[in-house]
Amino acid sequence: MCAVESASTMRVRDPHATALRSVWSHRNASCPSGGDRKQTLGTIDICCTLPGEDGQTEWRAASSD
Q1: Phi/psi of residue 62, nearest 5 degrees
Q2: 6-60 pLDDT, tens per residue?
Q3: Distance between CA atoms of 9 and 48, rounded to whole angstroms?
Q4: Claim: this prediction has a pTM higher than 0.70
Q5: Strand pairing of 2-13 and 36-49?
Q6: What share of the chain is helix, strand, coil (3-state, %, to 5)?
Q7: Quick check: helix, strand or coil at residue 13?
Protein backbone atom coordinates (compact mmCIF):
# COMPACT_ATOMS: atom_id res chain seq x y z
CA MET A 1 0.00 0.00 0.00
CA CYS A 2 1.19 3.47 -0.83
CA ALA A 3 -0.40 6.69 0.43
CA VAL A 4 0.37 10.38 -0.07
CA GLU A 5 -1.28 13.31 1.70
CA SER A 6 -0.56 17.01 1.24
CA ALA A 7 -2.16 20.25 2.40
CA SER A 8 -1.67 23.97 2.00
CA THR A 9 -3.36 26.98 3.60
CA MET A 10 -3.36 30.51 2.22
CA ARG A 11 -4.64 33.53 4.12
CA VAL A 12 -7.22 35.46 2.08
CA ARG A 13 -8.25 38.41 4.23
CA ASP A 14 -8.18 39.19 7.95
CA PRO A 15 -8.79 35.91 9.81
CA HIS A 16 -10.08 34.07 6.72
CA ALA A 17 -8.06 31.53 4.75
CA THR A 18 -8.53 28.88 2.10
CA ALA A 19 -7.11 25.40 2.50
CA LEU A 20 -6.45 22.83 -0.21
CA ARG A 21 -5.87 19.20 0.78
CA SER A 22 -5.28 16.14 -1.40
CA VAL A 23 -5.03 12.47 -0.49
CA TRP A 24 -3.98 9.66 -2.84
CA SER A 25 -3.65 5.95 -2.05
CA HIS A 26 -2.94 2.82 -4.06
CA ARG A 27 -2.91 -0.86 -3.15
CA ASN A 28 -2.48 -4.24 -4.84
CA ALA A 29 -3.97 -7.50 -3.57
CA SER A 30 -3.85 -11.14 -4.64
CA CYS A 31 -6.75 -13.50 -4.02
CA PRO A 32 -6.32 -17.29 -3.74
CA SER A 33 -9.55 -17.71 -5.71
CA GLY A 34 -7.70 -16.33 -8.69
CA GLY A 35 -7.14 -12.76 -9.55
CA ASP A 36 -5.18 -9.73 -8.72
CA ARG A 37 -6.88 -6.57 -7.60
CA LYS A 38 -5.66 -3.01 -7.83
CA GLN A 39 -7.32 -0.04 -6.20
CA THR A 40 -6.45 3.64 -6.47
CA LEU A 41 -8.36 6.32 -4.60
CA GLY A 42 -7.91 10.07 -4.51
CA THR A 43 -9.70 13.04 -2.97
CA ILE A 44 -9.33 16.80 -3.11
CA ASP A 45 -10.80 19.04 -0.41
CA ILE A 46 -11.20 22.82 -0.62
CA CYS A 47 -12.06 24.43 2.72
CA CYS A 48 -12.62 27.87 4.22
CA THR A 49 -10.80 28.18 7.54
CA LEU A 50 -10.24 30.60 10.40
CA PRO A 51 -6.56 30.13 11.31
CA GLY A 52 -5.13 31.53 14.49
CA GLU A 53 -8.26 31.15 16.61
CA ASP A 54 -6.14 29.57 19.35
CA GLY A 55 -4.26 32.84 19.87
CA GLN A 56 -0.96 31.75 18.33
CA THR A 57 -1.24 33.90 15.20
CA GLU A 58 -2.02 37.62 15.31
CA TRP A 59 -3.77 38.68 12.09
CA ARG A 60 -4.71 42.22 13.13
CA ALA A 61 -2.43 45.15 12.39
CA ALA A 62 -0.26 46.22 15.28
CA SER A 63 -1.66 49.25 17.11
CA SER A 64 0.48 52.37 17.39
CA ASP A 65 -0.61 53.23 20.95
Answers
A1: -65, 135
A2: 999 888 887 788 999 999 999 988 888 878 888 899 999 999 887 665 555 565 6
A3: 9
A4: no
A5: unpaired
A6: 0, 65, 35
A7: strand
